[in-house]
Protein 1
Amino acid sequence: MAELETFREATRAWLEENCPSGARGPGPIPNGSTKIEITDTDTRVWLERMIEKGWTVPSWPTEYGGGGLSKDEYLVLLEEMRRLSARPPLWSFGTSMIGPTLLELGSEPQKSTHLPRIARAEVEWCQGYSEPGSGSDLASLRTRAEDRGDHFVINGQKTWTSGAHNADWMFILVRTDPDAPKHEGISFLLLPMDQPGVTVKPIRLISGDSPFNETFFDNAIAQKADLVGELNKGWTVGKRLLQHERSGIEALVSGSTADAESGLVRAAKRSLGEASGRISDAAYRDQVLAYEMNNHVFRLAQRRAVEESDGGTPGPVTSIFKVYGSELQQTYYDLMTKIRGVQGFGAGRDGFDEADLETTRQWLFYRASSIYSGSNEIQRNIIAKRVLGLPD
Ligand SMILES: Cc1cc2nc3c(=O)[nH]c(=O)nc-3n(C[C@H](O)[C@H](O)[C@H](O)COP(=O)(O)OP(=O)(O)OC[C@H]3O[C@@H](n4cnc5c(N)ncnc54)[C@H](O)[C@@H]3O)c2cc1C
């Protein structure tokens, strides 16, 4: 206990000295892509300092670039970061999805090759799961990988591939045995994106953004050494990765969960007025309070689940996090837009400032949170079967 207190004091002092003011509160969070330049100085300095400490991935072993922190030390670090509203220095598909999966299920060469690069923010990954016709029924996927001795040759198509245009590597589910029952003929591969056999075509949204892509494979190559787990046993690896993705545990580190007054309360006071330190409008005050309490309880439940699972990512219970977390996000942005009145529904430029437009963009974006990473209907099926043990 005394050791933990010493760690807390040292951590607090180090953070106060090393977390630049521009890395506190909302702002950019790098993802490690070699194709994206970090233009904000404080964000870059914060990242560099945290890499040096191994605190971009605090609980990973030091030999893979992590901080080697115990579960208790990790939680102390998160608390101390929240105290300063320090942003996570790095958030990527590497830190939140493929990294934890390789730590559990990767070979030693896979770990020593890929994990340090993720920890040092030298790479970003994308997720090649969904295909046209294979979303919720993911195991029906048809992208083929043929075994050619020391490598696989891949042909087919993925879709909705978030960030593929900026990614350096992809983790991909492929069919390696077309004659086996559908869950048993799938393998999990790692694939460099910068090769002639991979073509990325942006899917343009009505807003003009292209956050995701169609990805085509035309004799693309993945090395045999980049097969994770056993041949035709990739479904197990793929499912475990989804649990890391759905856990939302990285949110525990987010500056937005700071104990100080939340962005929603501040926005409500600004838009609706403030009386005696409280939001003036009683009806909205109730709704904002209900959101704040539910959000706090949710974070505590997540933290308890992490503690009970020895600091790692829990199993099927992550589907509960996914459903409740995504509904909370949607409630947050529903309230954010409503409290702004007509300013909360900015679509064009005229009459709306950047904050109005950003609120609308976020509100629209989070409509998707109950779809991506497996829709909430599918999560409810998993909760019914795997958590509650209800019959099919
Ligand atoms: C913003 C965003 C980012 C994404 N990023 C990625 C990515 O990076 N990589 C990737 O591989 N994929 C990605 N996806 C794809 C995502 O995983 C799929 O959209 C999702 O799994 C649903 O599949 P689908 O779109 O094919 O819908 P469908 O599977 O066609 O489902 C349509 C509707 O039917 C419901 N439904 C289907 N089956 C059942 C069932 N058995 N019981 C009850 N209801 C059911 C679904 O809940 C849904 O409401 C992303 C999606 C979005 C929106």
Protein 2
Amino acid sequence: MTEENDEKPKDDLYSIPFFARRPIEIVRGKEAIVYDREGTPYIDCLGGHGVAIVGHSHPKIVQAICNQTKRLIVCSNALHNDVRGDLFELLASIVPLPLSPSFLSNSGTEAVECALKIARKATGRTQIIAAKKGFHGRTMGALTATWNPKYKKPFEPLIPDFHHIKFGSEEELDNITEKTAGVIFEPIQGESGVFVAPEGYLKKVKDRCFETGTLLILDEVQTGMGRTGKMFAFQHWGVIPDILCLGKGIAGGFPMGATITSEEIANKMEKLEHGSTFGGNPLASAAAIAAINVITEEKLPERAAELGTWFMERLNELGKKAVREIRGKGLMIGIDLRFKAEEYVLKALKKQVLLLTAGITTLRMLPPLIIQKEQLERVLEVLDEILEIRKA
Ligand SMILES: Cc1ncc(COP(=O)(O)O)c(C=O)c1O
């Protein structure tokens, strides 16, 4: 080991170097604050990439996980399980009809893989249409649906018959035809820069899917579970997808993905055509039940709507010249800059605020929905300090 390696944190030293980690090590978290080894607090607007919807170590999640570990951690999907059953029932109760039956997995990308397979099987077609600038995950199907060539090029050839159209363009919806199995979109594109679907667009997409017998898949891995001010972002536009993908905060930080569809579509799938060893295990299911109950009981979607509107108004009032545009809904906020965003993430970090980027020039905030107004006031102060026009 070299001296330089001696200084590297262990999670860099012994891992495949896929991640560009920031220079802090987080060891503990409570509500919307995370702490490093020295006990320095950081306001967490990164939120585990949008996972920490209910905040860190919410007591009800902690209790549900502790209780379930003492009862049963593992139960094969070849057997029935009470907690998994309760979660399926709860999920069916929070989605609008005709959505109801779900498949449980362990991540967002798996939720998308399942959706793509269902679309192909249920329609007997192969073509998938996705959006330019869309992001759906890193496994081969989800990666093929993803747009960014940086993520895809090294791994080609990917899966055939995937096509990308311009997000928001009604003219390009003619590309959806009787050959198209599924259209997969994020209602608000997260990873590429926080781009909200234009008013009326999703309805047009749904109508075109209906005309052509195509299934509409909405990837709400990032926008779901209250993040945008409604339980699901599609509720802003009254458009119910044929297949819904969820992940991130669905289980309060415990890994989980969910793919939800209608009975009619689910009935076109046969036994053993898809599966997962860990998906929906009792421990994850207990965490998810607790998280969903917290989201509804604490009215977190409403809270996200209120705080998000207030925050974006305040941000606009700052009138920073470095800012080109402020986009988003609820507590999914993008601050598009005239400069590369990464250096501002590092500036904020020095002031104990964690942010993330989206695309190259957008600063993104995905804080816990339980974040306090005073904490957001501090974030505004920090943004006010760091978003000064750079001297050439
Ligand atoms: C919209 C969307 N879909 C899918 C994924 C993939 O989720 P995961 O990283 O849990 O596989 C992400 C992750 O950021 C996402 O934002």
